[in-house]
Amino acid sequence: MPGRIVLYGATGYTGGLVARSMVASGVRPILAGRDRNRLAALAAQLSLPGDGTALETAVADAEPGPLRDLVGPGDVLVSTAGPFVSVGRAVVRAAADVGAVYLDSTGEPPFIRQVFEEFGPRAEGTGAALLTAFGYDYVPGNLAGALALRAAGPAATAVRVGYFISRNIRGASSAGTRASVVGLLLEPGYALRGGRVVTERTAAHVTSFEVDGDTRQGFSIGSSEHFALPRLRPATSGSGWVAAPGAGLVATPASGRERDGMPEPLTDVGVYLGWFGRATRLVQYGFALAGSVERVPGLRQALNSQVRRLQRGRGEPSTAARIRSDVVAVASDASGGPLATVRLSGADPYSFTGRILAWAACEAATRGVRSAGALGPVEAFGLDLLEGACADAGFRRAPD
């Protein structure tokens, strides 16, 4: 029997998009959150045509106990309630404890790292599957990076991924997104360098990509690609994909005998945010300044207050802010020479997030995922299936 789907944070902007995408696919999720009245109103809005029966709701705070009561082994718990660094731990812990499938919409690097490093080993023991950052942040980059690695062949040892938005981005972010960005000013970032996930400040590096004939800059950020992509290597035969030998959070080089006929380990992954165009360097300086004054008395408290104020505002993106999104992945060899480039193009990141989260939840509930632990998108569903789902959700491979 298919597992149940519980959507926590359903009354938020992203949660509403996910709920509507699920209902449009004929799925009846359980809507969960803290506000009984808002849940009831949303459930009534989403009653299926010709049915008239409102969706089931469940009131639960972000605490492991109540959330564990909502899901069991084989069920799917989807979380869109942020900022995840402050409210997300209890949700993922509940899924890991009971052996459920967990998905979330976070784009917050510290939380992503916690899921892979802290909760992943626990999930392996219980049979849970944890799929963090399963939205615009960072499914398209994982897909583009995996496609670039497959095209590059066994000599690839490094991947750069860049996220870019064209046209008007003012007013194109939700209150939750703005709260998350403010909350990250004093949080450390990370990257995969020399085969290890290393801590570094957000925007420590700036690099350039070619996007549809233009040179675009982005600054470095932490993401799920740093953990997920090193586990993927082209198979030695056929067209399938296998995990690299010794794959895990640290990519360790194999011996010469083991390397015979096998791909090189992926030792360097960099992910870059290119939303700010010519202001990229200015944003980089801003992150450096925030890090240098972190110990100023009251600064963190002031930022936390700003986060809470943004959350209370419940602002939604403007529907008039039409944008285009591009995600570029470049796979390189040990000398830095580019071997393959893949670009994916799409539109509104929020719409994509709603659709891809809904698809993943339905797929996991009906067919399951490929493994347990903290997983990347390709590990969970396979490269070709994921590419088709992303195309249906609005991100397609751009022509060369």
Automatic annotation (TrEMBL):
<dbReference type="InterPro" id="IPR005097">
    <property type="entry name" value="Sacchrp_dh_NADP-bd"/>
</dbReference>
<feature type="domain" description="Saccharopine dehydrogenase NADP binding">
    <location>
        <begin position="5"/>
        <end position="106"/>
    </location>
</feature>
<dbReference type="Pfam" id="PF03435">
    <property type="entry name" value="Sacchrp_dh_NADP"/>
</dbReference>
<dbReference type="InterPro" id="IPR036291">
    <property type="entry name" value="NAD(P)-bd_dom_sf"/>
</dbReference>
<protein>
    <recommendedName>
        <fullName>Saccharopine dehydrogenase NADP binding domain-containing protein</fullName>
    </recommendedName>
</protein>
